[in-house]
Design goal:
Elements (H helix, E strand, L loop, with lengths): L3 H19 L3 E3 L2 E4 L4 E11 L4 E11 H7 L17 E4 L12 E3 L6 H28 L3 E2 L3 H13 L5 E7 L2 E6 L6 H16 L7 E5 L5 E6 L1
Parallel strand pairs: 9-10
Antiparallel strand pairs: 1-2, 2-3, 3-4, 4-5, 4-6, 7-8, 8-9, 10-11
C-alpha cells in the first residue's frame, strides 16, 4: 500500500496546488498568495507528519506591502507560516470556519485518501479565500481607528487565553462604538461572559469616543452588543 507521505505529496502536487491556483492564488510548494497591489494576502500549508499519516492545515495572513518592504526581511514575500510582528491580520483557517477552532486534515493510506484534500480545498474556497478578500478591503478602507496598541492587545488577550476564549484579532473605533473582532460564535456562552467583563472594563474607563462595545465574528457578523 502506498504510504501516507507519498499520497500527500501527490495530493499537494496534483490536486491541492492546482486547485489553489484555479482560485486565483499564485505560489509554489507550500506558500501561496493572492495578487494584490497593496497587500500580501497569504496562505501557507502547515504540516504535522506522523509515521502512518500526514496531517496538515492552513495559516492565513495579511501583510501590507509597504510594511514588508520597509522591514527588509529576506525573501520576495512573507512566509504565511512565520510570525514577523508586522501582520495586519493572521489566523489559522479553523478560526474562520464555522467550528471556530483549529482544524487539521489527515491523509491516510487507502482508496479514500483524496477526500481530505478535496475537503481542505472546499474550506479555502468557501471560507479562507472570502476572509482574505474581506480583510484586504477592510484594511485598505480603514473602516475604523485602531484602539489598542499591540502590547495592550496582548495584555487583554492574555486574560482571554487564561479563560480559554479565542483572542481579539482586531480592536477599533467606529460609529461611537469599540468594535472587537474574534473567532467567537453566538452559542459560546463562556466567550460571551468573558467578553462582557472585558467590555465592562473598557466602558468603565469613561472614554468619550465610544458608548458601547460590539463583538463581531471573523466574518464581520455581530454577536453581542454591550453598553453602559
Amino acid at each position: 500500500m502506498t504510504p501516507a507521505h507519498r499520497l500527500y505529496a501527490q495530493g499537494l502536487r496534483e490536486h491541492l496546488a492546482p486547485a489553489l491556483r484555479a482560485l486565483g492564488f499564485t505560489g509554489w510548494r507550500r506558500t501561496f498568495s493572492l495578487p494584490d497591489e497593496t497587500h500580501w494576502a497569504l496562505l501557507g500549508v502547515v504540516e504535522r507528519p506522523a509515521s502512518d499519516r500526514m496531517r496538515y492545515t492552513f495559516d492565513l495572513g495579511l501583510v501590507r506591502k509597504p510594511d514588508w518592504a520597509a522591514a527588509a526581511f529576506p525573501g520576495l514575500r512573507p512566509d504565511p507560516r512565520a510570525v514577523y510582528g508586522l501582520e495586519a491580520w493572521r489566523a489559522r483557517i479553523g478560526e474562520v470556519l464555522p467550528v471556530g477552532e483549529d482544524v487539521w486534515w489527515e491523509v491516510l493510506p487507502g482508496p479514500r485518501w483524496q477526500v481530505a484534500v478535496d475537503d481542505s480545498v472546499a474550506a479555502v474556497r468557501h471560507y479562507g479565500l472570502p476572509e482574505l478578500l474581506h480583510r484586504i478591503e477592510r484594511d485598505r478602507g480603514g473602516t475604523g481607528e485602531t484602539y489598542l496598541s499591540p502590547a495592550e492587545l496582548d495584555q487583554v488577550n492574555g486574560v482571554l487565553l487564561d479563560a480559554s476564549v479565542a483572542r481579539i484579532q482586531r480592536a477599533e473605533l467606529a460609529d461611537k462604538a469599540l468594535v472587537l473582532t474574534g473567532a467567537w460564535t453566538r452559542t459560546d456562552a463562556a466567550a460571551r461572559a468573558v467578553l462582557r467583563g472585558v467590555a465592562d472594563g473598557f466602558l468603565s474607563a469613561g472614554d468619550e469616543r465610544f458608548a458601547a462595545v460590539r463583538c463581531l465574528d471573523t466574518l464581520g457578523r455581530e454577536l453581542w452588543l454591550f453598553d453602559r
